[in-house]
Design goal:
Elements (H helix, E strand, L loop, with lengths): L5 E5 L7 H11 L3 E6 L2 H14 L4 E4 L5 H15 L4 E4 L18 H22 L7 E7 L11 H21 L4 E7 L14 H11 L8 H12 L8
Parallel strand pairs: 1-2, 1-4, 2-3, 4-5, 5-6
The structure holds NADP nicotinamide-adenine-dinucleotide phosphate.
């Protein structure tokens, strides 16, 4: 479904990352992929994961709080791929102390960091990707129900996800005339590195398994397959 298509994936930290499950779905559909990692610490993880599974993948350092790294990332993608067809934005961050106790006590610094990394980065990445999406494209980001309702412990990340979801709607309006679609997947809880930062995460998993219509939690690959669907021509009129 994605043969001869080029994509970039932000947010692979390790094999549990939703971004990695998404990479596998996109790779199996024939896409050529670029990956970004944040800091040297994660470089080996991404290299190790892709070495056998997706040899020849482009691997680029990119901390979204550094504009020069975002610029350099898309320059490399332009040089290596020429055209870009899709972007997977699967990154979020909030200082640990902001993900416990009351939202009321969130510091200015924690608030600004969470909003910058988890929400502003979507517009930042979309802006950089747009000139390379010469044949249209798809952008997919990851959100969570804590944007809509209060989820204990999710706190400032819920506020950041609300900003992210509103950003998706505004970007859809801006990018639509260029045939670039943007969508967010609101995944259920998944045990990942980031999820470990949320207080009492295991009770969220238990709650969903008891009450969701399917009486189970979602698998990372199922989120990846949804991202594949959103990048594919099967859903070409949805943004
Ligand atoms: P993850 O594996 O920890 O992925 C989060 C990624 O964000 C990591 O690769 C992380 O890198 C990266 N990141 C953080 N700060 C960054 C920065 N300044 N620049 C570039 N990258 C940065 O966790 P995940 O659960 O798969 O999260 C992926 C997305 O899914 C997030 O948006 C998350 O909110 C969303 N989501 C998760 C769940 C869940 O239950 N797990 C549910 C719904 C939505 P570092 O490790 O270096 O910080």
């Amino acid at each position: 479904m994605l043969k001869d298509k080029n994509g970039i994936i932000f947010g692979v930290a390790n094999k549990r990352s939703i971004a990695w499950a998404t990479a596998q779905a996109l790779h199996d559909a024939g896409a050529r992929l670029a990956f970004t990692y944040q800091g040297e610490r994660l470089k080996e993880n991404v290299q190790g994961l892709t070495r056998e599974a997706m040899p020849g993948s482009l691997i680029i350092p990119c901390d979204v709080t550094k504009q020069e790294e975002v610029d350099e990332t898309f320059k490399r993608v332009s040089q290596e791929f020429g055209r870009l067809d899709f972007v997977i934005h699967s990154i979020a961050f909030a200082p640990r102390e902001a993900l416990d106790g009351e939202f009321l006590t969130t510091s200015r610094e924690a608030f600004l960091t969470a909003l910058e990394v988890s929400a502003y980065s979507l517009a930042q990445v979309a802006r950089a990707a747009e000139p390379l999406m010469t044949e249209g494209g798809g952008i997919v980001t990851m959100t969570y129900y804590g944007a809509e309702k209060v989820i204990a412990g999710y706190n400032v990340m819920g506020v950041a996800k609300a900003a992210l979801e509103a950003s998706v709607r505004y970007l859809a309006k801006d990018l639509g005339p260029r045939n670039i679609r943007i969508n967010a997947i609101s995944a259920g809880p998944i045990q990942t590195l980031s999820a470990r930062g949320v207080a009492d995460f295991t009770s969220m998993l238990k709650h969903v398994a008891e009450r969701a219509p399917l009486r189970r939690n979602v698998e990372p690959r199922e989120v990846g397959d949804t991202a594949l669907f959103l990048c594919s021509p099967l859903i070409a009129a949805t943004t």
